[in-house]
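During the first year of the project, the team set up a workflow for recording each protein of interest as an amino acid sequence followed immediately by a discrete structure-token representation. This format lets reviewers and collaborators read both layers of information side by side without switching files. As required by the reporting guidelines, we include two representative entries from the current panel. The first entry is reproduced here exactly as it appears in our internal archive.
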Amino acid sequence: MKNVTGALLFVGLALVATPIALLVPARVLPAADHLEPALRVSAAFDTTPDRPADIADIYAWHTDTKLVVIVTFAGPQSITLPAVYDRDVLYGVHIGTGVPKSDATQDIYFRFGADTSNGASRQGIEVTGVPGVSGAIIGPVETTLQKDGVLVRAGLFDDPFFFDSAGLGMSRSSGTLMFNRNRDFFGGQNLTAVIIEIPRSRISTGANPVGIWSTAARFGGQL
């Protein structure tokens, strides 16, 4: 795989952060954040929901040689809709080698903009702060980018999260658990995701705890 470098056109970014999940060695503490906070990102409460800044989930796992982190956002949505790339949102992946998770030792940021590396304007991604990478990883979306042993890919994916939201509502109203494992609210829907694969040796020695969480910040505040 070949890394495609070029220039991305952005505007300034800053604002609110939302913690999502925590990873410790050999164990994942799962958490979902779809449509939260509802007053900002849910159409049920806001006629202009901020879908691009709505982090859905963060997934993280490791093998003997690599750490894989996936941040999903702007979902769930119909499979007829395209991926969401908003240049006014800054996403963060924060890695801490101790507890509490707020003690970040490594901050990775990514954002989107116009990629002009091949002379034509198309959607691109810039990833900065990756351990062991000199400078930024820059290139078009829907492409696997590689630099200094790190892989990055941004694109449209099937929403991997499973949950029976109808069962939750019925359980709340009845006081009896009414979940059905064959009923998945997120089934057949898409979202946008960024995948980052990093050599494990740059993050963990295999003995220290590792906390991983994600944030989203919008330039200019609420839509």
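The second entry, processed by the same pipeline in the following quarter, appears below.
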Amino acid sequence: MDSTAPARLGLARLYANTTLGSLPPQSRGQVRVSLATATNLRSAVDEFFQGDASAEEAAFLTDFAGKPLVVLTAGIGSPADHLAAQNHLAILSTNSAHRTIDKADHQALIAEQQGAATTTQAILDVVQAVRSHAPVRQ
């Protein structure tokens, strides 16, 4: 199948409109434009189909040493085995923080204003720790 066919059929725009959440208008517009591309839709499909393989690879990770790491866990909709895996991931680095966002599901970590702000802050905290060679902000 031609990888641009879903976008030409409007599936990417349909997908983009279902994931906007409570972001501010300008951010919603930026997300809508980004999500409506054939490349993004193809990436989402690939991620879905490769998710199990990625999880299996991640299960073999044993040590991140002191590399900065922030693990974000959605507080809603995370099964117990996923929470255990998230806890395990967080202890792979001696320079890590594990943050659970109580009132968010996975989608909200990107599409809801508060969740997106928390996700963005986690990324900024890791970048800051890398640049400053300091511990990750808890």
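For the second entry, the following points were noted during internal review. The chain has a mean pLDDT of 82. Residues 61-138 form one domain. Both points are flagged for discussion at the upcoming steering committee meeting.
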